[in-house]
Amino acid sequence: MVSVKVLFFGEAFQLVGKREETVEFPAETDYEELRRIILEKYPALSKIEKVMMLAVDQEYANPGDRFELERFTEIAVIPPLSGG
Amino acid sequence: MESKDWVAGISKSDAGRYSRQLLVDDFGVSGQKNLKNTAVLIVGAGGLGCPVATYLGAAGVGTLGIVDYDRISLDNLHRQVAYKEDQVGQSKSQGLADNVKLQNSGVTTVVHNVSLDSSNAMEIFKNYDIVCDCTDNVATRYLINDVCVLLNIPLVSGSALRWDGQLSVYHYGPDCPCYRCLFPSPPDPSSVTNCNEGGVLGPIVGTIGSMQALEVMKIAAKLSTTLAGKLLLFDGREGKSRTIRLRKRDPKCAVCGDEPSITAPIDYMLFCGAGAHDKIENLKLLEPSVRVNVHEYQEIRSAARKQFLLDTRPPVEFEIAHLPEAIDITLNECRSLQAEELSSRLGVDSQTSDVYVICHRGNDSQRAVKLLKEKLGSIHFRDIIGGYEEWALKINDEFPLY
User: Fold this and answer.
1) Could you tell me the pTM of the whole model?
2) Residue of chain A with shortest Cα separation from B76
3) Active-site residue flag, B359
4) CATH superfamily of B288-395
5) Which superfamily does CATH assign the domain made up of A2-78 to?
6) Where does Zn(2+) bind (chain B)?
7) CA nearest to B315, candidates B300, B326, B301, B304
């Protein structure tokens, strides 16, 4: 397992109530597992599950992607904003 | 050679007017000429549309089209900086076009004072080279995306809420994704917060709108360093921005994929389950027996010695104004707190029979009554129809409307 910083943007911040938090993930993982762990740890995010993007080290994560996480990896939870 | 011969890359008047941007590397004379030959459509003449139109007009864009059906209101002015107090009540699209024209008479402006929908979008968009999404709602964002893909127009998309902004360029180049590649299905309407509910700071929309104008100038000047395929996240509270590299175009995308299923605009209100505006919906979640109107509540509170009133609004709104008997317990707290905690915060005991619930406009109060009934079954919870807004309109015109 490895501790990784998870960042919450926009509505994800509103739902979780934190800008960032350190979360434990398996060092070798994939997109599906990242999503599952994040949604289990932060059930409030289920509200935006359909539109929730994940980015790993500032790169959009696609279904099926595999990741080797390290101590300085950053995972961002990004829902779209629609106001203007 | 005569002394009056010269080779002109640009007219004398344009050289004089735009000299400071002609001097910028990689923009220069060719960028200026390209910008002058470009027609840009701005959809939404609000907090984003104001800076986009103002900067593109000033920079000398050839044609600027502005779509908006709405009128200027007083609570727009803190962020929609192109408008003046004496324009309240007037058309936004006309007001913004007038403003651009006043600043730079060389720009051709086109006013589209309509509500953009599936029936008119293709006809409006087809005359433009670049489209800017400066709108405030999800349904219109999908409509704009689809029409840009169908007509093969690059889309410069900005959005903002509270302290945050997002910016990207969609459908620009063969690998560039569209909005649907990223969000194939729309958000649950109950999870979408708009600026009317969540608020937004002027400089946030100002920053994102200014950057949208800059992306348009780069596309017009044919520079390769645009935000196509990238998403810029701006966090104004922390003063940080991050740029995320996005996925490539999805070959299975319903509109820009290899075998698209969307070949003409669809019904976006049906698709999103929400209207094409950012106005507040009037929900009816409760039976009339568990609701009172503001007149009834006024009688109840003047008759009773002690009245229990639960106020579901967030602390920032509670601070703007509240009734003296109101106890602030937010909708989220109604959801998360246990029965005992709720009772003690409210100050109710086993003798208490009635508690009234109020919010800003009467939607969250209904959601709260449903949650509270589950947790404190012995108490009769009722919501106040229309909330503080109705109270201000019908009972006390001194109470702040916001």
Assistant:
1) 0.85
2) A84
3) yes
4) Rhodanese-like domain (3.40.250.10)
5) Beta-grasp domain (3.10.20.30)
6) 178, 181, 253, 256
7) B326
